[in-house]
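Input record (one chain):
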Amino acid sequence: MQVSLEKILEMPDAFLLVERVKLRLADEQKRRRHFYEIFEENKKMEFINGEIVFYSPSPFCEAKAFGKLLILISVFVSKNKPANIGLSTRKRKRSSSIFCKTNSMSFC
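The corresponding structure, as predicted from the sequence alone:
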């Protein structure tokens, strides 16, 4: 929504609108200062539209965790000899699931 300055000045409550804008900008400035106080170079975080946004760890950390899970699964497979084992990925949601089924149990 774009409103010209002339239209704002024609409004009977223009003064109240300006006061609300000042309050909102002061609040955002306060939140921005807080962001700079807690900002850490090694964390993925941004200040977007007045909000602090944190991002997930780097793909390297996720790959490292996934590698450890594969080690655990390989131990399970060696020990229990499951009938089926596989990996299912969903590209849209960027998620993965591991499935394994034995004659006596299954997990996802």
